[in-house]
Design a protein that fits this description.
With 106 residues, this protein is mostly beta strands. The chain has a single domain, classed as SH3 type barrels (Roll). Helix content is 4%, strand content 54%. The protein has 1 helix and 10 strands. The strands form 3 sheets. The protein has a 5-stranded antiparallel sheet with strand order 1-2-7-8-9, with no helix packed on it. The longest helix has 4 residues. The chain is globular. The two termini are 17 Å apart.
Amino acid sequence: MALTATAVLGMGMVSMMAAPTAGAAEAGVTATCGYRVVWDSSAVKENPWPTAEILKWKHEGDLVTGPCKTVFNEVSGTTWTAVHCTCADDDEGWMREVSLRQTWRE
């Protein structure tokens, strides 16, 4: 079952989708996904908003991991993927979904 939530972020709204693995909710464990960057370069941002602060850049072929979570920003029409990033305030950065190709999930 997919979970959906809508939140106000800055001056816009975002809808979040997360699909936990079986038993994950009971155990308090979320899935981890691996992605390969498919764009020449793609920004890791502090939050899922086009004007958000750029924390770092990833380049074609780089591998990134994250909590298998995406957010659709209804104002910008952009889907963002959460990625692990120690450079973010909450250790979670955001990259444009179209710049990534999922390679694994555990």
